Amino acid sequence: MTKNSGQPAPRKPRTDALRNRERILEVAKEAFTRLGPSASLDDIARQSGVGAGTLYRHFPTRDALIEGVYRSEVEKVAAAARRFAETMPPLEALRSWMLLFVDHIAAKQIIAPALNSVVGGPSRLYEGSRSLIFEAMNSLVKRAITSRDLRKDLDSGDLLRALIGVFYVGLGPDSRQSARRVVDILIAGSRRT
After folding, report:
1. Which secondary structure element, helix H or strand E, spans residue 42, and what is its range?
2. Is residue 91 part of a domain?
3. Which structural domain, as residue segments, surrounds residue 32?
4. What is the pLDDT of residue 120?
5. Residue 111, C-beta contacts closer than 8 angstroms, at least 6 positions apart
6. Residue 22 lies in a domain
């Protein structure tokens, strides 16, 4: 029981339940990338090593699973900013995160058909993740400004828009490599003179 509410504290998920959920999300990401929104949920459960009941307990609908995959990927990208900041110099952490974000955008483009099938469309999902991504970028930019690696007038939102814009220009066979070159150009142009 909690002290004041009179209600029991929510139970922490069991380790095996968390492991099952993560495995389902990884397999579902691969399946939706390969097959789009029509990927078989029973096949996803089987390939995850769980029963259909376990899959549906975690994700009661196809939309819930697609949303879970997307949110999980966004949370991983945001968490990487903290990890990079703890283990790398400021400019290296920012560059590494920007490269990871480029890969995230490319993956989002690949899984777009599944995201488009979600009721309410993908914009609802994107809205929920925008603040996580912006906060990650902003914390890394502020750290690099404080270390005097980047210009003090740099706006992290501008960097983020530039990265996202690269993928809206067109997805060609070398778009990923081009986006990686843009990261280096953005870093070089943002350095303190």
Report:
1. helix 41-48
2. yes
3. 13-60
4. 63
5. 29, 32, 33, 69, 70
6. yes
Q: Which residue has 């058909």 as its token pair?
A: 113
- CA 13 – CA 55 distance, rounded (Å): 15
3-state helix, strand, coil in the chain (%, to 5): 75, 0, 25
Residues 80 and 11: their CA atoms lie apart, in Å, by 27
Q: How far is it, in rounded angstroms, from Cα 39 to Cα 70? A: 15
Shared-domain flag, residues 126 and 157: yes
Please report where in the chains the tokens 């996803």 appear, as a residue: 44
CB 105 within 8 A of CB 165: no
Total-model pTM: 0.76
Residue 33 and residue 108 in one domain: no
At position 17, the amino acid (one-letter code) is A
Q: Are residues 119 and 79 in the same domain?
A: yes
In order along its 193 residues, the chain shows pLDDT tens digits of 445 556 665 655 578 888 999 999 999 999 988 888 889 999 999 999 999 999 999 999 988 998 899 889 889 999 999 999 999 999 999 999 999 988 887 776 556 666 666 666 666 666 767 888 999 999 999 999 999 999 999 999 999 888 888 766 655 667 777 778 888 999 999 998 7
Query: In sequence order, what are the residues at sequence separation of 6 or more whose Cβ sits closer than 8 angstroms to the Cβ of residue 150?
Result: 91, 94, 141, 144, 190, 191, 192
Encode 116-146: b = buried (16+ Cβ within 10 Å), e = exposed: ebbeeebeebeeebeebbeebbbbbbebbbe
